[in-house]
Amino acid sequence: MDGIQDTGANLEAAIAGEKYEFTELYPGFLSTAEGEGNKRAEISFRNALGVEEIHHGLYSGALAAVKDGNDIAETAIHVCEICGNTVYGAFQDPCAVCKAPAAKFMEIE
Ligand SMILES: [Fe+2]
User: Fold this and answer.
1) Distance 13 CA to ligand 1 centre (A)
2) Which one is predicted more confidently, 22 or 90?
3) How far apart are CA 97 and CA 90, in angstroms?
4) Helix (H, G, I), strand (E, B) or coil at 64
5) Is 3 exposed, middle or buried (0-12, 13-18, 19+ CB in 10 A)?
């Protein structure tokens, strides 16, 4: 990133970063963990990969709203304390990424 810019440019940079993470960075880490037979690392990288893809979608939705001259709708946001999965609206049970129970979701105010 090249410092703070306008919201649209900041979101575009964030989207590019998330895409890199779930298409290149974490798949490489996951492959290495699988090759080493490190099951705990595999779980961690698989969760991170899934969550970064979700963040990519959330940022993309926010960018679309900005381009339309709107704000995203105000809603509850829940974050899984285990993997970082971020959900607008009602939380999931279990977490769609790491399968943690609903009690592991924290509402962000
Ligand atoms: Fe999770």
Assistant:
1) 25
2) 22
3) 15
4) helix
5) exposed
The C-alpha atoms of residue 85 and residue 79 are separated, in whole angstroms, by 6
Q: What is the whole-number distance in angstroms between the Cα of residue 55 and the centre of ligand 1?
A: 13
Whether the pLDDT of residue 1 is over 70: the answer is no
55-92 residue pLDDT tens: 999 999 999 999 999 998 899 999 999 999 999 998 88
Distance CA 32, CA 83 (A): 20
Residue 84 Cα, ligand 1 centroid: separation in angstroms?
Answer: 6
Three-state DSSP class for 78?
strand
Q: Using a cut of 0.85, tell me whether the model's pTM lies above it.
A: yes
Q: How close is the Cα of 18 to the center of ligand 1, in Å?
A: 17
CB-count burial class (<10 Å; 0-12, 13-18, 19+) for 28: exposed
CA of 24 to the centre of ligand 1 (A): 21
Q: What is the pLDDT of residue 75?
A: 92
Q: How far is the CA of 95 from the centre of ligand 1 (A)?
A: 5
